[in-house]
Amino acid sequence: MTDIEFKQKLENYQTRINECLSTILGKPLEKSESATEAAYYSLECGGKRIRPLLVLEFAYICGVPEEKVWDYLPIACTTELIHTYSLIHDDLPCMDNDDFRRGKLSCHKQYGEDIALLAGDALNTKAFEIISNEAINNVVSFETACRLINILSSAAGFKGMVGGQVIDLQSEGRQIDIDTLTLLQSGKTGAMITAACLMGCAIAGEYNSRIYADAAHYSALLGRTFQIVDDILDVTGDFESLGKPIGSDAQQGKSTFVSLLGLEGAKEQAENLTNQSLAMLENFKNNEFIKMLTQKLLNRSY
Amino acid sequence: MTDIEFKQKLENYQTRINECLSTILGKPLEKSESATEAAYYSLECGGKRIRPLLVLEFAYICGVPEEKVWDYLPIACTTELIHTYSLIHDDLPCMDNDDFRRGKLSCHKQYGEDIALLAGDALNTKAFEIISNEAINNVVSFETACRLINILSSAAGFKGMVGGQVIDLQSEGRQIDIDTLTLLQSGKTGAMITAACLMGCAIAGEYNSRIYADAAHYSALLGRTFQIVDDILDVTGDFESLGKPIGSDAQQGKSTFVSLLGLEGAKEQAENLTNQSLAMLENFKNNEFIKMLTQKLLNRSY
């Protein structure tokens, strides 16, 4: 796969994911439109769309034919709904109190805290409504839908994303060790990245199989790399590329992989993890794109 | 059914629902326990448990044998998880800013706003994890689980409970008419009461059938009665029975069924709706308990 072919496939994914997200909530009800508006506002703030992309790509590398993958766009986008709800709530004054997200005003600065809270709540719920709908409409079997809902909900909940956020809150203003930081991030960021890969497997009918375990292993490595690179970019990046202020972790006294390992140590670990990820991908067919993506995520600047 | 038999059945429901709720989230993870603790705190604040009770009772009156009903306790309790998350978020300073709930400190006063927010988020997600688990563990079919998840998620989301809360926010500090108040309450309170009844039907294998439509009709009448009685109790009740301050609606300048219809007008309407509800229940077998419950909900003092 050439660089140009990679870029085309990536952009095609992102374009179709963005198209799907722009109508996924349906039309707002006349009298209760502001929460839907606020949710669309945050959904359309951009981002790399890495989670829905991983769902679709894992469906593909687990055996779903290339042209059939698009049937699963709404299901793939449920990961972005959950991710977006978590960002909206994370930006609230009682959490990180961030006024900006991806270069735009955060949801509560634009719509008020109450509407932002409710928009996040309804996005969370909507993810599960969509997957159950796709089963009722025969896009996936009822069994597959239940597997998908189980993967997504357990990744997002008390023992996944929310669990990681709680450890994050408990770690505020004090030094934590590398094990705690790894546990924190495996919940906060890693759980949803793993969920995306496993949802792709489940769509392809792979469940609790050898290839499912390989996907879980790969996604754990990818999730860790992803977060380490985030921490590196918080030191070496710029506002324009990232759409958020630089150095905010250090300013808030947060322990990061950079503060614990040093910049060079963090870079080295990200490279090691990427090499392990690439090795794991050798177990999958049609792996050219996902391998290039894994490599590019290591070297991203945004 | 005698009054004593009614009371025994009601207490049995509530006891078993409370037992189920007290372990439903599993054990907290060591390092991320505070959100789980906060969620249990709010789940264990009591309440009438009317939603899970309706799930179980509708399963029963739609044909599930009495002793088999208890298999569906965890599924029934998911309605209480969603209800509890909505109460936790509703009490937050950016929403109703209530310091008390059922006579105890509200979740954010006890655990902080950040943990309360996350506990609510994870309770929302957990509901869907539980239902999908019950399918994976063969308690219900995958199809039934998808129907249940679809009913619950659409009732809780943008066009249901959250939609009603948005209209509520938009109505703050101004007079609204009876149609808007009815629309607001049919979302905010009604949607989840309807969901509970319909989930009971779905467990019994009734879906989009005549009896399903009857349950939908009954539940809409019950939901409206329930809210009117709530509004009446906000004027005529006392702190001890209700566990919250009296007169808070009037104090906040909220339009209620009492402010719009007058106390006598509201009482009359609640009675009319109850009579219609009772007539609708004639279409169900084994309806002695649900009829007495419907009557008692009209005359409740808490």
What does this protein structure show overall?
2 copies of one chain form a homodimer. Chain A has 302 residues and is mainly alpha-helical. Chain A has a single domain, classed as Farnesyl Diphosphate Synthase (Orthogonal Bundle), CATH 1.10.600. Chain A is 70% helix and 1% strand. The first copy, chain A, has 14 helices and 2 strands; from the N terminus they run ααααββαααααααααα. Chain A has helices at residues 3-21, 33-43, 50-61, 73-91, 107-111, 113-136, 142-156, 161-170, 178-203, 210-236, 239-242, 248-251, 257-281, 288-298, and strands at residues 100-101, 104-105. Chain A has a two-stranded antiparallel sheet with strand order 1-2. In chain A, a hairpin with a 2-residue loop joins β1 (100-101) and β2 (104-105). In chain A, α3 (50-61) packs antiparallel against α4 (73-91). The longest helix of chain A is centred in the C-terminal third of the chain and has 27 residues, at 210-236. Chain A is globular and about 50 Å long. The mean pLDDT of chain A is 93. Chains A and B meet through α2, α4, α6, α7 and α8 of A and α2, α4, α6, α7 and α8 of B.
* Cross-sheet strand order for the largest sheet of chain A: 1-2
How many β-strands of chain A, per DSSP? 2
CATH class wording of chain A? Mainly Alpha
- CATH topology of chain A, by name, is Farnesyl Diphosphate Synthase
Low-confidence stretches of chain A: none
Radius of gyration of chain A: 19 Å
Largest protein interface, residues of each chain: A-B, 62 and 62 residues
Shape of chain A: globular
Strand content of chain A: under 5%
What oligomeric state is this? Answer: homodimer
| Number of helices, where a helix is a run of at least 4 consecutive DSSP H or I residues of chain A | 14
Order of helices and strands of chain A: HHHHEEHHHHHHHHHH
Intertermini distance of chain A: 23 Å
Estimated helix fraction of chain A: over 70%
